[in-house]
C-alpha cells in the first residue's frame, strides 16, 4: 500500500529531477550567450563550456534581489594566458557578463613576440664530468 509519505518522497524526487533538467537548459543558454559575447569581442572562449559556480542572491537591472545562477568560463585574447569571466542568469534571462581585464590589440601595433629566448641547456652528463673534476 502506498502511503502519503511515499507520495511526498516521489513528488520531492520528481521536483528535484525537474529542477536539474531546467538547470541543464539554463546552462546551455548561458553557454550560447558566452559564445556570442566572446565572438562579438573577438576573443576565444576556451574549452567551449561554462560551469556553475554558485547560486546567489544578486541585484538585477531594477535593483531587486533575485536568485541567480553564476556561471564561470575562461577565455583568451593572445592564446597564451587564460582569463576568467562570469555570467549571471536569472532563470533563462541574462543578468550580466563580467570579464577580467584583457589587452586589446590595435591594427597599428606590431604583433607581440610570443617565443621566449632560447635557454642554455646543460646535459646532465657534462655537468657531472665538470663537477667531478672540480672535486678531485
From TrEMBL:
InterPro entries per the UniProt record, alphabetical: DUF3301
Pfam families per UniProt: DUF3301
Protein name: DUF3301 domain-containing protein
Amino acid at each position: 500500500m502506498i502511503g502519503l509519505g511515499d507520495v511526498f518522497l516521489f513528488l520531492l524526487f520528481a521536483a528535484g529531477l525537474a529542477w536539474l533538467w531546467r538547470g541543464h537548459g539554463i546552462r546551455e543558454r548561458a553557454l550560447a550567450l558566452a559564445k556570442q559575447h566572446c565572438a562579438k569581442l573577438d576573443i576565444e572562449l576556451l574549452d567551449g563550456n561554462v560551469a556553475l559556480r554558485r547560486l546567489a542572491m544578486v541585484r538585477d537591472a531594477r535593483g531587486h534581489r533575485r536568485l541567480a545562477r553564476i556561471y564561470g568560463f575562461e577565455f583568451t585574447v593572445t592564446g597564451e594566458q587564460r582569463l576568467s569571466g562570469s555570467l549571471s542568469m536569472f532563470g533563462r534571462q541574462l543578468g550580466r557578463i563580467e570579464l577580467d581585464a584583457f589587452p586589446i590589440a590595435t591594427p597599428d601595433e606590431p604583433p607581440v613576440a610570443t617565443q621566449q629566448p632560447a635557454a642554455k641547456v646543460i646535459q646532465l652528463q657534462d655537468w657531472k664530468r665538470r663537477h667531478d673534476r672540480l672535486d678531485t
